[in-house]
Amino acid sequence: MTMLGHETPWQQWREALAGERMHHAWMLAGKRGLGKMRFAMAAARELVAEDGLPQPDSHHPDIIVLNRLPKDDKEDKKRADGKPYETKRNIAVSQIRAMQQRLNTRPTLGSRRAIIIDPSDDLEKGASNALLKSLEEPPIGTYFLLVTHRPARLLPTIRSRCRIVRFPTINDDDMARLLSAQAPDTEPATQHAAIVAANGSPGAALDFVERDLGPLFKLMQDIIAQGDPDFMLRGRLADAIGARPNRERIQATLDLARSVVSGAVDQASRANYPAIVDAHAELVKLTGQAPTFNFDAGLLVAEIGTLLASAAPNRERANV
To answer: In what ranges is there compositional bias, type Basic and acidic residues (predicted)?
Structure first.
């Protein structure tokens, strides 16, 4: 079954697959939570399948997936046990080098091999430079699928070698039907908040419900609407996020804050546009930096609250 918003990407992929010369590198671009990785896996299976060759149902030897590894041995054991685990901040150059070693051999089952990098936004600098060499001189039968939430973070030389497939956001009516089907016990008010906060991303909407982000969303809306001159709302925001939030919760909080700031534009006066734009730009910067630096969680949460307060109407933005 095709996921919402995947009709055009599938059309582009299958037309290329049926053509005489399949492009060797593809960038799957769009917001987080649009199902790009699921598309990549399904597309890779179509790519490597050949008539008369049985294909494994689970792990495929000709589909190589590179993503962030577990942070340490303790987290690696959690992964082996099927438990949630924390990852490293980046995809390392050593992972690209290991993949390149495999490219010196022929595919195992057929004539094609797929390399999926998810997310390619998180390649460290050395890894990006190493990958570029493979994109410049790809081995015959090797195809790259780069999943990216923020294409601008990739090297221009990598982007220029990829065919870009863009994944659209989903309209509110389709999002409501999706939530009703996959999270049927969600209260109407929470469902509405999830749709508004997710801004067209089904994965973000489901994450909103699963992580119970409604209280965070309401506090953020209050801060950006009325400011926080006595710091009370920011204190409640910190309590709602928790004293030791993991990386995934921090990421969800940053994404939610960006959505709240973006949504404030419609109600903003012309005079307040610059403050909203500046706050959004700083949140984008924080979102990009958070996976790569060891932030003090308390300070990061305080900064998120301060940026939200800075986007409040001028007359109410005190002590930011």
So the answer is: 69-85
